[in-house]
Amino acid sequence: GVKWDPAIEMRACGGAAGSRPHYAVFAKGEVHEGQVVVDIPKSVCLNPMTTAISDLITEAEISGGIALIIAVMYERAIGDKSKWYPYFQILPQREPLPMFWTKDELKTVKGTELRKILKSDKLLMKDDWEDIVT
Question: CA-CA distance, 67 to 48, in Å (whole number)?
Answer without folding.
Answer: 6
